[in-house]
Design brief:
CATH architecture of the largest domain: 3-Layer(aba) Sandwich
CATH topology of the largest domain: Aspartate Aminotransferase, domain 2
Family: Belongs to the class-V pyridoxal-phosphate-dependent aminotransferase family.
CATH superfamily of the largest domain: Type I PLP-dependent aspartate aminotransferase-like (Major domain)
Shape: globular
Structural class: alpha/beta
Largest sheet: 7 strands, mixed
Strand content: 5-15%
Protein name: alanine--glyoxylate transaminase
Order of helices and strands: EHHEHEHEHEEEHEEEHHHHEEHEEHH
CATH class of the largest domain: Alpha Beta
GO molecular function: alanine-glyoxylate transaminase activity; L-serine-pyruvate transaminase activity
Distance between the termini: 36 Å
Radius of gyration: 21 Å
Bound molecules: pyridoxal-5'-phosphate
EC number: 2.6.1.44
Cofactor: pyridoxal 5'-phosphate
Oligomer: single chain
């Protein structure tokens, strides 16, 4: 039962938390278990092996923390850095802003490279900083792969290229919260030292697991990093990995079984097919926005996100009213504009276990709401643009061929 009832299904199109598939819900509907029995370590072992696949790493070491993306950030930073360390961080929207705030509160010296909201990371500024840093005082470069507030995706391969060009040893720390398992992400190929995600995004689980993956270099750095850490200390996990029992404290049994089911669904579809599906969902959404005559908050095509689209509304419309109406009238949940873009954009999340027809339902709802709030939209225009693209591009469902 909904806390505030609405008939039919809620159309959940916020960019996380996202829809949980039935298979995952059923897998989690189970009793607690003794996590010290042989069963839970055996299950955990498969999870640790299999999450590496979604990070595309063979050399990385994964950690499953009972936390959210914010806790995973803290784990990445405190295990690899010491107070006072100089780091470079890109501010491109609300989530990169929050990560920078955490970095500053943890006492790192942060060189903030700021962009207009809607633009990607200024990599030329990074290049200049690395070129000037011949003493290697910069200890880490931190970047949000996909900024959820503005729908901007950064090209991580370029960051790696710049680090290599200047032969700079800074650690490369990546927030992949709304990108890993939805967008192309290659931890090993791109030399990412710590990557992290949260269970409520592309994996389509409840909130509650922060997945952090550390490269061998990051593990090495953790041996000398002096930041205070207890709950998020990798060392405690590694100790229990070695013992074969895996958990330094009580895991959520239900979430572990949920993660098993979520990974099974990803592998059943095929990770590359999952990524291709997100590309289709992103492209279809952008075509609808264009057909409505509205602008994407993302300033350049190269930064377009395939997991979230932030739609700019005309100045005479409050985008928060669109979000309110969506929920009150159509049982559709859209994302609010945050901070600098509050009232100016609404967001359509298109990530996780989601298919094209679900998206078309959302787009039909958005059209009606736009009309409700006085925007002159032709009903069906966005749906037509999206569906004619999708009709030409949806492949057979991989597991049904
Ligand atoms: N990073 C990004 C890019 C996000 O979108 C979010 C949440 O939406 C977070 C970090 C924070 O994650 P959490 O809310 O799970 O702590």
């Amino acid at each position: 039962m909904d806390y505030v009832y609405g008939p039919g299904r809620n159309h959940l199109f916020v960019p996380g938390p996202v829809n949980i598939p039935e298979q995952v819900l059923r897998a989690m509907n189970r009793n607690n278990e003794d996590y010290r029995s042989p069963a839970v370590p055996a299950l955990t072992k498969t999870l640790l092996e299999d999450v590496k696949k979604i990070f595309k790493t063979t050399s990385g070491t994964p950690f499953l923390f009972p936390t959210t993306g914010t806790g995973a950030w803290e784990s990445a930073l405190t295990n690899t850095l010491s107070p006072g360390d100089r780091i470079v961080s890109f501010l491109i929207g609300q989530f990169s802003l929050l990560w920078i705030d955490q970095q500053q509160r943890l006492n790192f010296k942060v060189d903030v490279i700021e962009s207009e909201w809607g633009e990607g990371a200024k990599l030329d500024v990074l290049a200049a900083k690395l070129a000037a840093d011949t003493d290697h005082t910069i200890k880490a470069v931190c970047i949000v792969h996909n900024e959820t507030a503005t729908g901007v995706t950064n090209d991580l391969s370029l960051v790696r290229r710049i680090l290599d060009e200047y032969r700079h040893p800074a650690l490369f720390l990546v927030d992949g919260v709304p990108s890993i398992c939805a967008l192309d992400f290659r931890m090993d190929d791109w030399g990412v030292d710590v990557a992290l995600t949260g269970s409520q995004k592309a994996l389509s689980l409840p909130t509650g697991i922060g997945i952090v993956c550390a490269s061998p270099r990051a593990l090495e750095a953790s041996k000398t990093a002096k930041s205070l850490r207890v709950f998020f200390d990798w060392k405690d996990y590694l100790k229990f990995y070695n013992l074969g029992t895996y958990w330094p404290y009580t895991p959520s049994i239900q979430l572990l079984y949920g993660l098993r089911a979520a990974l099974d669904l990803v592998f059943e579809e095929g990770l590359e097919n999952v990524i291709a599906r997100h590309k289709r969902l992103g492209q279809a959404t952008r075509l609808a926005v264009e057909a409505w005559g509205l602008k994407n908050c993302t300033q350049k095509e190269e930064w377009h996100s395939d997991t979230v689209t932030a739609v700019v509304v005309p100045p005479y419309i409050d985008s928060a009213e669109i979000v309110r109406r969506a929920w009150k009238r159509y049982n559709l949940s859209l994302g609010l504009g945050l901070n600098k873009v509050a009232g100016k954009v609404f967001r359509i999340g298109h990530l996780g276990n989601l298919n094209e027809l679900q998206l078309l339902g959302c787009l039909a709802g958005v059209e009606m709401i736009l009309k409700d709030v006085g925007y002159p939209v032709k009903l069906g225009s966005g749906v037509a643009a999206a569906s004619s693209y999708l009709q030409n591009n949806i492949p057979l469902i991989p597991s049904r061929i």
